[in-house]
Amino acid sequence: MKHIDIIIHVLTLLSGIMTALLGFLLYLKYKIKTIRHYALFILTTTFTVGFTTVYSYLSGGFLAGQYTLHSVWQTIPFLLFEIFLLLINYSFSRFALGILNKPFALINQIFFAIPCFVVLLSALTFAYYNFGKDEIMIPPALNSCFGVILGFLFLAFILYSLQIAFNLKKIGNPDLKKALKILALLFIIDMPLQALIVNFNRQPQIIMLTRNLFYFSVNVISIVFAAKYFFIKTPSIMERIEISEVFVRKFGITDRETEIIALLLSGLSIKEISAKLDRSFKTVNNHIYNIYQKTGAGNKLELLNLIKENQI
After folding, report:
1. Distance CA 261, CA 243 (A)
2. Which of 67, 106, 143, 267 has the maximal Cβ count within 10 Å?
3. Alpha carbon 269 to chain centroid distance?
């Protein structure tokens, strides 16, 4: 069992690093924020896996009730782990909202602010219990705070995954739709199981093993999709681009320029656009030049990025 556990840990870490690397390379190539948020999500989960694995083997786990430490620095990993959970929550939320083409609205901000407040409360509770004492103690209240933070993370995974699952019909590309369907199903099924294991099993080795198997599955699905769209073709997130009124007003784009932008981003050449609009090559080329001058974009990918940033 121990050897299997170590193998799963290593595979999870390696696959996480590879997935995050592919994600950031895709972001650098296409400048799409949704990809960056997903890469950050994978990176933070990978850090968390590595961090908790090392710390658990050295200390015997986090959830051991009230116990005594000999120095303040030994409590840093506990609080740092809570911050990691916040980063996972934030990055996954922004990724899901990006897929759904929705803003990080007030309700989303409040939902994220609650665990942030609990992390602050956790730090204040720790300071209150240990002020002026020679030995550092982790009070039981911190385990309660940790449970709330973890609960909000599980809830975020489930709620955003359900939203993605209910909006799959809006995803035009079949590859992306299939990947999102599998990922959403994994999150919806696994999170309740993880909650049951954490609450009723409470054996660190079992908790980490099931968690790592879940993240390893997520990483494998992500690698297959990311590799295909990094080495073969443009990410499907770039499909079905909607040019918002915000973008049009901000850059003073005319109706004709809006039409040309849509055709340009659909993959048509200037010659094909001129034929479709029954306009000369020079006229269309002048429109495109004006578009780039107004927006400051240097190419189609930069123009696409501006449109994505100004959709809301």
Report:
1. 9
2. 143
3. 34
Give the pLDDT confidence of 171-230 residue by residue, as tens digits: 766 777 888 999 999 999 999 998 888 778 767 778 888 888 999 999 999 888 877 665
Residue with tokens 């123009």: 303
- What are the CA-CA distances from residue 3 to residues 10, 155, 178, 263 (Å)? 11, 32, 33, 56
Q: How far apart are CA 249 and CA 121, in angstroms?
A: 44
Phi and psi at residue 37, in whole multiples of 5°?
Answer: -65, -40
Distance (Å, whole) CA 200 – CA 62: 15
123-132: which pairs have CB atoms within 8 A and are 24 or more residues apart?
123/79, 126/75, 126/79, 130/72
Topology of domain 2-238, per CATH? Rhopdopsin 7-helix transmembrane proteins (1.20.1070)
Output the pTM of the full model.
Answer: 0.71
Given CATH 3.30.540.10, say whether it is the number of domain 245-309: no
For the segment 47-64, what is each residue's pLDDT rounded down to a tens digit?
A: 988 887 776 666 554 444
